Amino acid sequence: MSAAPTIFWFRADLRLTDNPALTAALEQGSVLPVFIWDETPPIRPLGGAARWWLDKSLRALAADLAVRGAPLILRRGPALGVLEDLIAETGAQEVFWNRLYDPASIARDSELKARLTQAGVRCRSYNASLLIEPWEVATQTGGPFRVFSAFWRAAEPRVACSDGLAAPAALRPPEKTPASDPIDAWSLHPEHPDWSGGFGEWTPGESGAAKRLQTFLDEALFEYSGGRDRPDRAWTSKLSPHLHFGEIGPRQVWRAVQARALTGASLKSSATFLKELGWREFNHHLLFHYPRTPSDNLDARFDAFPWRESSTDLKLWQRGKTGYPIIDAGMRELWRTGWMHNRVRMIVASFLIKDLLIDWRLGEAWFWDTLVDADIANNVAGWQWTAGSGADAAPYFRVFNPVLQGERFDPEGDYVRRWVPELSRLPASAIHAPWRSDSLVLSDAGVRLGVTYPYPLVDHAQARDRALKLYKELP
What we know:
By secondary structure, this protein is of the alpha/beta class.
């Protein structure tokens, strides 16, 4: 046992259960739990919705630690400098953490580890956020995968989820506790205005993550395989923000879902859901091996694509005023709740990229700012997939028709009615393309096109033809 405390550095692992670095740190003796808010370039600053989540998650974590006898120390600034200060203040000679996989964090952590090791400080890192390390699977030629199906065939057999690590019953804090920033001083919660009024369905924190998982297992897993594409139904897990912030680990989710795979139907849904965890792994695999993808097309041919510059069209898309109800419903759900159904994410992304010909990077930046689950690996991979510029990308000729998508996946119009209330009185037969309805139907529903609801921003058929022509001209 060490007389000086071991610093445990919380990052994207804001939980006590199944936290390998924390468990290892506790074996050394007294522990100083620390969270460092480091946005030093090139670390990407958090978006507004993620800042809201971080505020609540840190408060929940601090309460969980306090019950176990230890404070959570909050410090803001470059991580190396903060850790050096804490080492000087406490005499700590060990720093433990769980790994991050984005390129900026990898570069920072590598330098930090080298500097601290040179100064005689022992540094240990662990995996708490992935089922498989990005370097643990490779193609037959030794390179990274660029096709999901091949990746998952190689990766899934390597997933080993033994019994998880229990949360500690108590923590032994250091004899002297260093000063901590008050979390209110970080101003993570929005003010003037507070736009988070619609975020009330979320419960950030480890207990909130556990409850979200239990609700999914009890109420939605059975329907997942057949219903996960239905935004009008609560048949997805909504675990993505909890996974991103590490309030629950993927191994915990994997074990829980496998345990429910008892009947033929639930077995199918469980397999489908676990494959989605595999897609998350694939996205991190891509980011690790292709670290420039947050800013650069993975397929360099797309560097020559003639994107349109239209701040007006971009703003109408952001505000949910495109005139396509399924698009507008998704964008308004995003703004109000910080989340959007995955099927709708694909539809709105396709519309921005292929109907409006606006650079995927502008859409990715908006999602980064407005999603509570904004994750650089998942966000970038999804947008590049839709654009056709990424790995395992959607073929260039796949252009989602927003009317047909709405009719197929929101057949009664319930999703649109919830988020676009000015169309709520339209019948299901008209709600996804109100401009095609006769004047009597619109009048009875109180809809005045161009007044209470906009005409379509573009003609989809013409926009599709325009996009296909440009895509075919790529070198």
